[in-house]
Design a protein that fits this description.
The complex is a heterodimer. By secondary structure, chain A is of the alpha/beta class. Chain A contains 6 helices and 4 strands, in the order βαβαααβαβα. Chain A has helices spanning 11-19, 27-35, 50-54, 65-80, 100-112, 126-150; strands spanning 2-6, 23-25, 83-88, 117-121. Chain A is globular, with a radius of gyration of 16 Å. In chain B, β2 and β3 (45-50) form a beta hairpin. Chain B starts with a helix and ends with a helix. The chains are: A alpha/beta, B alpha+beta.
Chain lengths: 151, 141
């Protein structure tokens, strides 16, 4: 099952999902397409004027082009998701996930899709971390059962 | 960038704080697998780059070395890419700060993976007004 994660570049979430045999929809896969392109236009990322136009599918024209450009990368991942795990209040925000408004819009789009969703808070203590891991594993096991029952 | 390079995949192998192998051992073991990969030793573990099937095969084998303490993550940029490599940038790449933050939790995650527990995903429900009244009355006594 394809599972979208938020933050979309989280090591913890991507690793736990892979361990259970699912496919995490990570941001790096989209970034790879844009940085290893044979006809790279604008290093370091191959973001062209096409991206903010593609982003119009997710955000209105008056929304800043930075949000629309980011949504052109996040959007296909959200569209492809069959389930999602959102971890709120993550203490990092660099590069592509450094825009708070894009993050809000991405989470909104994931919630709006109506797919199985697990919402968590970023853990800070040992107890919280253990609970988060167990919750993610329980959620992933449930998805597996759902997949089997749907054939 | 050549067409050949653009079809390659990159993976970061991160050793947890309680891992029973070191970065050097890890790199040596990856070399011993005899899979056609570019391997880069790093402070957190290693970065491997190669064809998708080779990378996936290597990740599978690497996980077997210490299942609960070895973590892996996809990476968009190839290893040593001048746009991201700290040698050219003059400072840690953005992803490193995130990795540093997530690394703080890896020890607890390893422990949770070693000792899994069943938990409920149900959110605690709201109590009824009558129950709340009872509790309020009892606390007043």
């Amino acid at each position: 099952m394809k599972i979208a994660i938020f933050p979309p570049n989280s090591l913890i979430l991507a690793d736990l999902i892979e361990r259970r045999g699912h496919e995490p929809l990570v941001l790096q896969k989209e970034i790879r397409k844009r940085v290893t392109d044979a006809e790279i236009d604008s290093p370091p990322l191959n973001i062209t004027e096409e991206e903010p136009i593609k982003g119009l599918k997710y955000a209105a024209i008056e929304v800043p082009s930075g949000v629309r450009g980011r949504m052109a990368i996040f959007g296909p991942l959200i569209d492809a998701a069959e389930a999602a795990i959102i971890m709120e209040d993550a203490p990092f925000g660099f590069g592509c996930i450094g825009c708070a408004r894009t993050n809000e819009l991405s989470m909104f789009c994931l919630r709006k899709r109506g797919i199985p969703l697990l919402e968590l808070h970023y853990p800070t203590t040992k107890e919280e971390t253990m609970e988060v891991v167990n919750k993610i594993n329980t959620f992933l096991d449930k998805l597996e059962k759902l997949e089997v029952s749907n054939g | 960038m050549s067409q050949e390079e653009s079809s390659k995949f990159t993976r970061m192998i991160i050793l947890g704080p309680t891992a029973n192998i070191s970065q050097t051992e890890l790199v040596r073991k990856i070399h011993m697998m005899e899979i056609p990969l570019t391997i880069k030793s790093t402070c957190y573990g290693a970065v491997i780059n190669g064809e998708e099937a080779d990378v996936n095969k290597a990740v599978e084998e690497i996980r077997k070395l210490d299942p609960c303490n070895i973590f892996t993550k996809d990476r968009g940029f190839p290893p040593g890419d001048p746009r991201r490599c700290r040698a050219k940038r003059g400072g840690a790449r953005e992803g490193f700060h995130q990795l540093e933050k997530e690394f703080e939790l890896l020890g607890h995650i390893s422990e949770a993976l070693e000792h899994p527990k069943k938990v409920s995903l149900k959110k605690p429900g709201k109590i009824s007004v009558d129950t709340f009244k009872k509790i309020a009355e009892e606390s007043e006594k």
